[in-house]
Amino acid sequence: MTSSQKPKKQELPPTAWAVLGLLSFPGERTGYELKKWADSSLRFFYWSPAISQIYAELRRLEELGYAASVRSGPEEVRAKRRYAITPAGREALAGWASDTAEAGPPVLKHGLLLRVWLGHLAEPDRLRAMVTEHLERTTEELGSVREAMAHAAAEPDWAFPTLALRWSERQHLAELELARALLADLDGLGGPGQERQGSGDAPTPG
């Protein structure tokens, strides 16, 4: 493997560190393989970047000297470029991963709750249907998380990804419990949404 430039210090977005993190495990991987792994691991607790973003970050990481790539030879029908982390990239990633000041608070953007918040403009039955659909989707996702956990648990080098996936399993179980409680709350309101409006004051102090 070769890389044309020496590593240099630079602030990177979280997506770049995530892609470099995927490369930090043993082996060389194509951009497509990195995307598949992100879809079966990262997306359950963080986010899975688009394939175009992965390739953009791979180019950036190569320019910095944090990653290097090699193109497959004529023995393969379709040429592929495989990427691996460099010693400089591993050192930079280790420094970033151990810097807790950069972690930041978790960000929650719950589309379903935004609609419930606007429930005075919706039909109660439709709100209940949306929560029920959310329960079904979350149950399916929980199954996917558990499949990923089983796969990761079979790889000795993936002990820490397994811990992250185990956290995601608990998070999905908690989401199911919260959604069931929300459904019960909606059932307890009764009556058309328009009839539940108050005096017009915002439900906040001050």
Molecular structure report:
The protein has 206 residues and is mainly α. 54% of the residues lie in helices and 5% in strands. It has seven helices and two strands. It has helices spanning 14-23, 31-39, 51-64, 87-97, 111-117, 124-153, 159-189; strands at residues 67-71, 81-85. It has a two-stranded antiparallel sheet with strand order 1-2. α6 runs antiparallel to α7. The termini are far apart.
The percent range for helix content is 40-55%
Strand order of the largest sheet: 1-2
Element pattern in H and E: HHHEEHHHH
Shape descriptor: elongated
Portion in beta strands: under 5%
Radius of gyration: 23 Å
Taking pLDDT < 50 over at least 5 consecutive residues as the criterion, the unreliable ranges are 1-9, 193-197
Distance between the termini: 63 Å
Main sheet characteristics: 2 strands, antiparallel
**Number of distinct beta strands:** 2
Structural class: mainly alpha
Write the layout of secondary structure elements.
Blueprint: H1 14-23, H2 31-39, H3 51-64, E1 67-71, E2 81-85, H4 87-97, H5 111-117, H6 124-153, H7 159-189
Antiparallel strand pairs: 1-2
Describe the structure using short key phrases.
5% strand, 206 residues, mainly alpha
Brief sketch in words of this structure:
The chain is mainly alpha-helical and 206 residues long. The protein has seven helices and two strands.
